[in-house]
């Protein structure tokens, strides 16, 4: 890592956190930026896109209960949330939806997409959590998404 990279990353983090337009992030651009991050080069635009996403709760919240349940299962598998809490919320969501058994869940496209790490957000966009990679920033975005969906799941079952 060159000496300039930490400075550029820090500058991008500060700019992204200061931005109030985080909810207007184009998630399609984010996905391609995240894919670029998985390569050997980390570009400034990728970092700022991920940083902007960290400030956007709408972009990281599930659009429906089916997708939330699938995302919670994905998050547990990736060890991004407390398994006991997430499993309890996921099971309650599935019960509320009438999807307690395996054959019911296999017919729900939103649930299946959630299992694959595809978060169908409230604003109609889709964020592929797998494409965010395993960089420190990518893990932070995934963890935030999982935490938000867990909280959202609790509100769905209340």
What would you note in describing this structure?
It is globular, with a radius of gyration of 16 Å. By secondary structure, the chain is mainly alpha-helical. Helix content is 63%, strand content 4%. It contains eight helices and two strands. It starts with a helix and ends with a helix. The chain has two domains: 4-54, no CATH class; 65-157, no CATH class. Strands 1-2 form a two-stranded antiparallel sheet.
Secondary structure elements and pairings:
Layout: H1 4-18, H2 27-38, H3 44-54, H4 65-77, H5 83-97, H6 102-106, H7 109-115, E1 118-120, E2 126-128, H8 136-157
Antiparallel strand pairs: 1-2
What's this model, at a glance?
The chain is mainly alpha-helical. It has helices spanning 4-18, 27-38, 44-54, 65-77, 83-97, 102-106, 109-115, 136-157, and strands spanning 118-120, 126-128. The protein has 2 domains: 4-54, no CATH class; 65-157, no CATH class.
